[in-house]
Amino acid sequence: METPPGGGPPPHCHACEDEWFLVREGSAEFLLNGEWAPVPVGLSVFAPMGTVHSFRNAGQTPLILTIQTAPAGFERFFGEMAAEFQKPSGPDMAEVVRISEIYGITYPQP
Questions:
Q1: What is the pTM of this model?
Q2: Residue 38: is its pLDDT beyond 80?
Q3: How far is 1 from 12, CA to CA, in rounded Å?
């Protein structure tokens, strides 16, 4: 996954998947246990299902991550989200939340 400077998803929680991230290039920060921490290139982060987490590009160049989810099937979420974000008018956030709910993803309030 390539994330532009300043980009990243809002804090969220997966009910059905564990998620593992490998920082390949760029300046990454991850939210786990309610705190943001830098994660250098070459290190990884594990977010077990049920854990509120996020990441962001804290640098000035693209952040490149390898992301793995288990069990399989979560790639369908990315396909549906890609279609939503490619709309000429931009994504409808109500639709983003609806798609997320189908896949067991919630966005806890701060």
A1: 0.89
A2: yes
A3: 17
